[in-house]
Amino acid sequence: MKGVWTITKKELKSFLYSPIAYTLTAFFLLISGFFFYNILAWANDQTMRAMQSGYGMNQININKMLFQPFFNNMTIILMFLLPLLTMRLFADEKKMHTEELLLTSPVKISAIIIGKYLAALIIYTLILLLTATYAIFIFIYGNPELAPLLTAYFGLFLLGAVFIAIGLFASALSENQVVAAVISFSAIILIWVISWVGESGPGAWKGILTYLSFFSHFQNMVGGVIDTQDIIYYLTFIFLGLYLTRSIFEFRKWR
Amino acid sequence: MIQVENLSKKFANVQAVKDISFKVEKGEIWGFLGPNGAGKTTTMRILTGYLPPNQGQAKINGIDVSTNPKSIKRMVGYLPEVVPVYGELTVREYLRFVAELYSIEKKKINFAIDRVVEKTNLQSVYGRLIKNISRGYRQRLGIAQAIIHEPSVLILDEPTNGLDPAQIIEIREMIRSFKENATVILSSHILAEITQVCDGAVIIKEGRLMATLTREEWGKNLEIATMDMAPDANWNDFKNAFPYIKEVKAEGQVLKLEFRETLNNFNPIIQYLIQKDIKIKEIKAGLEALYMKIVLTEEGRVA
Q1: Is the domain of B8 the same as that of B35?
Q2: Mean per-residue pLDDT of chain B
Q3: What is the CATH number of the domain that holds B188?
Q4: Is B119 contained in some domain?
Q5: Domain-ending residue, one of B167, B191, B214
Q6: ipTM of this model?
Q7: In angstroms, what separates the C-alpha of B299 from chain A's closest C-alpha?
Q8: What is the pLDDT of residues B113-133, one digit of tens each?
Q9: Domain-embedded: residue B49
Q10: Fewer CB within 10 Å, N side or C side of chain B?
Q11: What is the pLDDT of residue B231?
């Protein structure tokens, strides 16, 4: 589509010229590094004990003991950080009145939305790639399995891609960045914990609500399983986020 | 060419524009006049394809805005009320971005940027961040982005708003020069600006069309307020000195003149009055007098 790359380039520039991207990256690495260190220390401790006592040696697995809890923790950090990455995407355009420039240009609304989405996705992917340094250390000093690690990263990428789609939608709702961040953060949390309601509900609901939650789908991927059902779930969410964003623009014209 | 026929636009509970019609011929500059909240910006936004109308039609070069927004957007250059710039970009990066939005060919982009930078005198701030340039440069940048794709219709929402007098004159000169290649509509609060730059004016109030006036019409009127005029003075000599004066009326301290033809130069008349030692307080060209009458009459402030 014409104009997508133009928008993406401009958004990447805006990210990189503002302190937001750097601050987010720094704090993401700081917090995830802290988690990684702690989980690694715990895993070390467990391994030492098993070696001394001789019990449970067959339970020792670096992927399960280190990476699975680490990735689960990362999802929590992403829940907080990605809304901060996406909040300015449309809210700022409205506040600074630059939206009029975009909407009176021949570039289609869908191209503008996709362009902005891609920019946020690229920044997120770069941040995610930086955390691969932790894994590289483990490969130097140990021998974890590569395949489940890649699957987990793919899962994390898809999950973040959904969060960004939700954040983009929230950003189109308000001209206030903080409001946009609060909306996307709340939406992500709600969809995350919806499976809790499912667990105590009646039979049919349990299945539906568990399916709707991010949680169950992510668990499969962290465990090293790629299921097309999970991928379809994520892609549906992304599409829905982008589609709803577009409807907001249609709706606002007639308001 | 711009045609607006019975245009109406309603927001949730506000009738922003109601049944407005006017026409601007190719190569003309028209002014859009009215108090704040009259519906000027809404009408302009409809013309750019930013907002769809509820009723009626807006046509640019004969093409309906709501049925073919994409080709309209290529033909129209738009300067919104608030200049749509990104503070974090440099002037050069911003103009390149706009050029790409309008899908100007890659090899022609540099040429297009050079052209508008020269036209709007942005050379000295070309490499600076937009957040660091002054209000006047910002406004010129706004005009530069509006003309980068060589539009045949230019829509300028308060182009001289917030500028100092020297900058205002500069922008006015610039707008006059656009006449060669484009049809222009501009909104303004400054009546003198419309009188100097425009070929005609559309006056709206509370979303309704109050009047459309052409230069010929307002050029035939002049009001001169004086400090010390004898109301019963005999003006026949004055009238005879200028054969194009049709009527002279003295109301209190105000001298109202009507001409047989459209005048572009009032200097001889003013000089004559100065020689007669009449102390002039204020001169209102025709449009100002007409505007006040039209906009204020309904509220009963002017009899």
Answers
A1: yes
A2: 87
A3: 3.40.50.300
A4: no
A5: B214
A6: 0.89
A7: 30
A8: 999 999 999 999 999 999 999
A9: yes
A10: C
A11: 60
Closest-CA distance, A166 to chain B, in angstroms, reads 25
Contact B52 A254 (CB under 8 A): yes
Whether B77 maps to a domain, the answer reads: yes
The encoded tokens of residue A111 equal 């191209």
Same domain flag for B82 and B53: yes
Q: Do A107 and B88 touch (CB under 8 A)?
A: no
User: Which residue range is the domain that position B15 belongs to?
Assistant: 2-87+140-214
Q: At A139, list the tokens.
A: 């490969």
Asked if the C-beta of A105 comes within 8 angstroms of chain B's C-beta atoms, the answer is yes
Could you give the CA distance from residue B301 to residue B298 in angstroms, rounded to a whole number?
8
Q: How far apart are the C-alpha atoms of B285 and A124, rounded to whole Å?
A: 61
Q: What is the CATH number of the domain that holds B279?
A: 3.30.70.100
The counts of H helices and E strands in chain A are 13, 0
Residues B55, B166, single domain; the answer is yes
> Per-residue pLDDT averaged across B241-270, rounded?
81
- Give, for all 255 residues of chain A, the pLDDT tens digit: 789 999 999 999 999 998 888 999 999 999 999 999 999 999 888 888 888 887 777 777 888 888 888 998 999 999 999 999 999 999 999 999 999 999 999 999 999 999 999 999 999 999 999 998 888 888 888 888 888 889 999 999 999 999 999 999 999 999 999 999 999 999 999 988 887 776 676 777 777 777 888 877 888 888 888 888 889 999 999 999 999 999 999 888 776
pLDDT of B275 over the 80 cut: yes
pLDDT in tens, B51-102: 899 999 999 999 999 888 888 999 999 999 999 999 999 999 999 999 999 9
A157: tokens are 């990428």
Chain B residues with CB-CB distance to A10 below 8 A: 86, 89, 97
Contact status, residue A212 vs residue A190, Cβ threshold 8 Å: no
For the CA atoms of B158, B159, B163, B167, the dihedral, rounded to the nearest 10 degrees, stands at -150
Whether residue B207 contacts residue B37, with contact meaning beta carbons closer than 8 Å, is answered with no
**Best CA proximity match to B290, nearest among B214, B184, B185:** B214
Burial of B289 (0-12, 13-18, 19+ CB in 10 A): middle
Q: Which residues contact B115 (CB under 8 A, 6 or more apart)?
A: none
How high is the pLDDT of residue B301? 43
Q: Give the CA distances from residue B88 to residues A222, B13, B131, B141, in Å, rounded to whole numbers and listed in that order.
A: 39, 37, 7, 14
Q: Of B182, B199, B214, which marks where a domain is finished? A: B214
Name which residue leads in pLDDT, B260 or A172. Answer: A172
Element (H, E) at A161: helix A146-173
Give dist(CA B21, CA B46) in Å, integer. Answer: 13
Contact between B296 and B203 (Cβ < 8 Å): no
Q: What are the angstrom distances between the C-alpha of A252 and each of A3, A165, B49, B96?
A: 22, 19, 14, 29
Which chain A residues are within 8 Å of B50, Cβ to Cβ?
Answer: 100, 103-104
Which residue is associated with the tokens 């009899």? B303
Task: Give yes or no for a contact between A116 and A89, defined as CB atoms under 8 angstroms apart.
Answer: yes
Cα angle at B252 between B248 and B255, to 5 degrees?
A: 30
Residue B132, token pair as written in the block: 């660091």
Q: Which of B42, B4, B83, B61 is nearest to B182 (CA)?
A: B61
The verdict on a CB contact (< 8 Å) between A101 and B98 is yes
